[in-house]
Amino acid sequence: MTGFGRGAASGDEFTVAVEIKTVNNRYLDIHLRLSQELAPLEMIIRKRISARLSRGRVDLNINFERTGATTYEVNRPLIAGYVSAMREIQEQFNLAGDIDVSAVARLPGALSPARDDMDEMNTAGLEKALDEALDSLELMRENEGAALADEMRSRLAKIEAEVPVIEAAAAGLADAYRQRLQKRVGELIARGGQAIELDAGRLAQEVAYLADRSDISEELARLRSHLEQFREAVDAEGEVGKRLDFLLQELNREANTVLSKSTEIAIKDAGLAIKAEVEKLREQVQNVE
Q1: 130 and 202 in one domain?
Q2: Measured in whole angstroms, how far is the alpha carbon of residue 40 from the centre of its chain?
Q3: Contacts of 240 (CB under 8 A, 6+ apart)
Q4: 81, 137, 175, 181: most buried, per Cβ within 10 A?
């Protein structure tokens, strides 16, 4: 589910700002943008996010700054090598002059801000900012989730409206098969020019066989059950995304079976309408945890 959250915290010698963004994904996929200084805290940050979120691509950006006096570390081996090389040049080419301190200071890597370890106060401030960003994110996702649940209920109602259409069309299948068989046999007899009397018993057996092959009562019962379970899951608390995924697979399976068992136009139209709504629900369920 898409969302955005921001959090911030500060202390005597630091400020930290956290921004978190989520987009749809079937699994939890966390991407962090951290400074090298925060690298030791990566596992703590990931665990804190995983405790609050279960699905979606998560992009997290943390801006940590120290506000106290900055101290520098001197890269002594680098400077020593530079000074030694300069003196060797002087001796070899008989050059005069002193080594410029400012030139040494400008050497890449000669001086660098000291990397102080993250103490408990810094870590606590970062966790506070992260929790604040997650709270803001979840609030936004809850509002979006409420609208999403309403839309899914609307699509469920459309699917449920097709079930009685299928049931009504299926109720007359036996008579329809009988009429088709009688008509077809009559056409064949008329084409052959022979007077043959139809065996009513044999005709009834064929009709019963075709009706049994096209019986979709079990599929419709399971379809209604899956719809009810889906509605209960939408209204439930906690993580329901994977359950909804499974129920959509089952709904699609029942719709396919109904379509394969019947040639009636009304049933096929209703079955295709159900499959279309299931596909729309599938896209929406990707946003649900």
Answers
A1: no
A2: 28
A3: 233, 234, 288, 289
A4: 137
Same-domain status, 165 and 253: yes
**pTM to 2 decimal places:** 0.55
Bridge partners (DSSP) of residue 66 are 14
Q: Is 255 exposed, middle or buried (0-12, 13-18, 19+ CB in 10 A)?
A: buried
pLDDT at 115: 60
Determine the Cα–Cα distance for residues 18 and 133; give it in Å rounded to an integer.
Answer: 6
> 105 and 185, same structural domain?
no
Per-residue pLDDT tens over the stretch 184-243: 655 655 555 555 555 566 655 655 555 556 677 788 889 999 999 999 988 887 778 888
CATH of residue 127: 3.30.230
- Structural domain range at position 30: 3-69+120-140
SS3 1: coil
Beta-carbon contacts of residue 181 (< 8 Å; ≥ 6 apart): 203, 206, 207
Residues 30 and 96 both lie in one domain:
no
Q: What are the backbone angles phi and psi of residue 62, rounded to the nearest 5°?
A: -120, 125
DSSP H/E element including 186? helix 173-192
Total domains in the chain come to 3
Tell me, what's the pLDDT at 259? 86
133 lies in the same domain as 17: yes
* Spatial distance between the Cα atoms of 156 and 274, rounded to a whole number of angstroms: 9
Same-domain check for residues 205 and 242 = yes
Dihedral sign for Cα 167, 170, 171, 172, please.
positive
